[in-house]
From TrEMBL:
It comes from the Eukaryota. It holds the Pfam family U-box. Its EC number is 2.3.2.27. Keywords: Repeat, Transferase, Ubl conjugation pathway. SMART domains: ARM, Ubox. This is RING-type E3 ubiquitin transferase. The keyword Disulfide bond does not apply. The lineage of its organism: Eukaryota, Viridiplantae, Streptophyta, Embryophyta, Tracheophyta. Residues 22-101 form the U-box domain. Pathway: Protein modification; protein ubiquitination. It catalyses: S-ubiquitinyl-[E2 ubiquitin-conjugating enzyme]-L-cysteine + [acceptor protein]-L-lysine = [E2 ubiquitin-conjugating enzyme]-L-cysteine + N(6)-ubiquitinyl-[acceptor protein]-L-lysine. InterPro entries: ARM-like (IPR011989), ARM-type_fold (IPR016024), Armadillo (IPR000225), RING-Ubox_PUB (IPR045210), U-box_domain_protein (IPR052608), Ubox_domain (IPR003613), Znf_RING/FYVE/PHD (IPR013083). The keyword Repeat applies. Gene3D superfamilies: Leucine-rich Repeat Variant, Zinc/RING finger domain, C3HC4 (zinc finger).
Amino acid sequence: MAASCDGSQSDQSSTFEPGIDNIYEAFICPLTKQVMQDPVTLENGQTFEREAIEKWFKECVQNGKPVLCPITSKQLSITDLSPSIALRDTIEEWRARNDCMKLDIARQSLYLGNSEANILLALKNVRDICRNIRLIKRRVRNPQLVRLVTDMLKSTSHEVRYKALQTLRVVVEGDEESKAIVAEGDTVRTIVKFLSKEPRRGREAAVSLLFELSKSELLCEKIGSVHGAILLLVGLTSSKSENVSTVEKADLTLTNLERSEENVRQMASNGRLQPLLAKLLGASMASYLGELALNNDVKFNVAQTVGSCLIDLMRSRDMRGAALGALNKISSFEGSAKVLIGTGLLPPLIKDLFYVGPNQLPIRLKEVSATILANIVNIGYEFDKVPVGAHHQTLVSEDVVENLLLLISNTGPEIQGKLLEVLVGLTSCPNSVINVVSAIRNSGAIISLVQFVEVHDNDDLRLAAIKLLHNISPHMSEELASVLRGTVGQLRNLVGIISESTTTITEDQAVAAALLAELPERDWGLTQRLLGDGAFEKIISKIVLIRQGEIRGKRFERTFLEGLVKILARITFALTKEAQAVSFCRENNLASLFLDLLQSYSQDNIQMASAIALENLSLETKNLTVIPELPPPSYCVSIFSCLSKPHVVLGMCKIHQGICSLRDSFCLVEGQAVDKLVDLLDHENDKVVGPALAALSTLLEDGLEVENAVKLIVEADGLTPILNVLLENRTENLRIRAVWMVERILRIEDIARELGEEQNVTAALVDAFQNADFKTKQIAENALRHIDKIPNFSGIFAPTLAK
């Protein structure tokens, strides 16, 4: 046991380094009991390991003890240390001889059929020897031994494989030749496999070995070429379950592998983009960025990191293609698109699109530029506040929009489609649609835009055109109707798109239907064209198929069905002008269809359109009701009137006083529609309540049996909802309609007496009398007379003849 500075014995055990050759006692440090590396001698001739004796002296001083010799325990007058050069050289010779013998034994033990214990001992000896060799700055290369250790990676034992990985890491550390030997054959692929197949410590050993190998530039490409290597390493860098050392080594390995451009591309493909971004000044790297599949978070990160760099590269003739490809990729996400706008992308993008002359963009790059612009515009940004020109024009400035329209008319289908998408995006924003409409109107572009409806070989182009026309239709409905009415192909094409035989509703069908639905419903010329082309029959067929579930499409079904119903409803506006329209409605039982739609769908626009159609149909009922001819009175009855009895005609409508039906005369009473319309009066959407009120109002028109109609409404519990519409005063149009209906209802004396006591009803009528338009004031005045709130002077003054 070694003595401490106070003369006591150390508790450190004597662990002599094992060897084949005899260890001489002079080689052993009395303090460490190990073969010395750097022997030094004291003034009294005793020899120790330098590090050990220096530590001894330091402990003596720190403990306030005199500096003693560990062997003699006598105080030393000086602590000078003299190197024992001869002894050191002898030890090194002995160690080299001993190491060679150990390695020879290891070679004999390293075969897969040997016992696990022998293999592990041999691997330990190889590690120890390699560490010692490195420590004394001497290198012994043994290719055969390296290959034997590599073979141990094929062992079925986890422990042997783990120790083999550790041993190889020690062997190749700082030794390019050994690294090359290890990389022979499929060894690198085997090591990579261990990144996912081995237990945790095996993975750590494998990544540590790869890190050492990756320090060799020659091996970087070989490691990266192993299928899945970079993916597994990238996965380790973000793992929450691996230890810190494994994560760090994986990251350092990837850093080394960045020396290969192909590796950088692979890293980018697997989510490690920073190396690629750092090399973006190269055209090949920028081009590769445009080919990658990026998630939205990565797109945002790329835009923030190198967005300005990519915009600068657009100015380089050699680099602009690669830059535009990358910008196209990252501009498709709203967050990254906003970053690019803020970075200044729009001005050079617009300039490149419009510029014609030397160094102008090739057509293929103009298409990419148009795609980028379409990506950006479709995020719904406030483009009226982003300057894009030298004179502070914005993307929605009239001259910029006119240039876009001009470019559309002078380029090929691919660019046309993207530029139309740009206009679709701009017209989808309430703040910019008016500017675009103004430019289209002033440039007379509406005719050329409508012509795109006839495109058959480019579905994307046609769809973009129809979307644009739909967006501007609320502002240019008359112009659109005029163009479609004046041509043959475009209107038929729209109907053809809608009526395409499909089991799934397409976006083209939904948008085409929405476009036709926006056109002026009272444009009789357009309705006549649709009627003559058999469009309405096709619309009915589609509605029926949707209701039967034979065609579906959750994404577009709502828009498509709403459009179909609104298109079909337009024929009811032509009933007073064309007998053919009446015949069509009768033959196809449209009143019944609209009544079914009214109650079968909870979609507001469908209910609204159906109620409007029912109103129009019901207004025609009085003209279509069959009034039965009564037989002439007999001779006796003509002389003696007291003998006459009123003729009874069965099946008479209580409201229209004739023979009615839902199919032939569109009678809402016979169709039992009153209850269904009353149900809609409690709807939260005013645009549904208004048409429902209007449809019910048709039963209270002059010339009808109003008292019977009021009774029907009361029996359907409709009085309270009608009064609620009046009291809530939600919109002026609703109030006008409610005042008209309430005045008619108050003509019934029993109801007038009852409601005359309701102060809130009186207050609502007084408010209408004071604040509504002239006609409604008159109606409110009459209503107030019915409940005796305004004196009736008809008995005092003679009635004035109407002029």
